[in-house]
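I had to read the description of the data format several times before I understood it. Each protein is reduced to its one-letter sequence and a matching series of backbone shape codes. The format is easy to grasp once an entry is in front of the reader. For illustration, here is how one protein appears when written out as sequence plus structure tokens:
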Amino acid sequence: MILYDQNIWGGTAKPLGNRPLLIRDMIYRFSADVLCIQECNPVTMRMCENAFPDVIKADYVEVITEGDPNHTTLFYRPATVELIASGRHTYSGKNSENAYAAVWAVLSEKATGKRFGLLSTHLWFKGVDETDNLQRIENVKELCTVVRDIEGKYGVPVLMAGDFNCGAGSHQGIGGYQEMIRQGMRDVRYLAESTTDSFTIHNYPIHNADEVYVNSDRPYRTLDYVFVNNTQGISLQKFHVETGREALLSSDHCPLVVEFYLE
């Protein structure tokens, strides 16, 4: 099974240009089975020419949850997986159009009938003062409650992927990440048999007069992660950060790709 995660940079006044098509091409190149997506903005990524959900709709179905403004979302490939259950948790405290949320699903691999949980999340983004760091820590506490509820009800391993807006060297601090570890969640980067030390975040790509994105810098920091609640029932084969040209032009966040098997 292949998980693809990316913050697709949807909340911006800059033109979207060719970015949705670049993201689509990477998803298809990796033959992803499930997608964790953040910033799938209703006003930009869902309303533009070549809107992101439209360019992948031939092969992927979105997990629709009640009251969801669709910033943070999940997609799955019905040819390979089946949706069993789903839900959405909006974080309390600081938020913006309820964009900071956790959307989850329980899925069954069609080839084996084995089940797993999947969660896409986006934590509070600001790093002005300590209240912002504390907000991310509270986000994580709520997130881990959701994960434990899924685990308790369905008895499945849960993969959590997204933009955690925290990390070593970031002005947003590292409190949210540290709280994930304190809560017993495990960073897949350090569990996978094959892994990388590549960073995930870089400067915004630059577009030309025709609104085509043509240039970007290399990643310099990590804000995006994939965690798992436990390793029972799941084998984590590969953790990859895609840093090729398509990745650097499609967003300021590089895609994370995880290959895993259900046991």
Notes: The chain is about 20% helix and 30% strand.
